[in-house]
Amino acid sequence: MAKPAYYAASGSGSTGPDTALIQTWLNGSRDPCTHFDPVQVDGLFGPDTVKAVQEFQLRNDLKADGKVGPLTWNALHTKYAAANNGSEQYPGIAMKSGQEGAAVKSAQQQLNVKGASLTADGRFGSKTAGAVRRFQKANSLPADGVIGPTTWAALYR
């Protein structure tokens, strides 16, 4: 799994695919000594996610501020990749127009590998939605312009 090059600081109140990816990585890097319950992967950085991030930070010698900046982002990625065969991970929520972040950038990069000509800037705009629809049509998927689990799986095989 390639470490996302696009970082957006995330913390209480953040929403979207990056928050869902953080939640997915928190759940996927749990071990028998983890005290926090698995967090709901909903893309909403609420109190349970803050607590889980703080525990992760404490256990990994990071400042336990409950925010995910570059150091925590890298540590989460490293722990998750080590525990989960290193494959690119679906962020846990459907991605659509108006969203942005590392998960969107990863999908844009993969769309480019599959023949699109997008600027991989992490912003899911009309050009990305169009590229997704074209990819979906070419792969006999419902062409709704949304990257859900089925489209993600097709992009990364």
From TrEMBL:
Domain of life: Bacteria
Name this protein carries in UniProt: Peptidoglycan-binding protein
Coiled-coil features, chain-numbered ranges: none
InterPro entries, per database record: LD-transpeptidase_YkuD-like, Peptidoglycan-bd-like, PGBD-like_sf, PGBDSf
Boundaries of every Peptidoglycan binding-like domain copy: 16-76, 101-155
Organism, as annotated: Candidatus Faecalibacterium faecigallinarum
Pfam families with a match to the protein in the record: PG_binding_1 (PF01471)
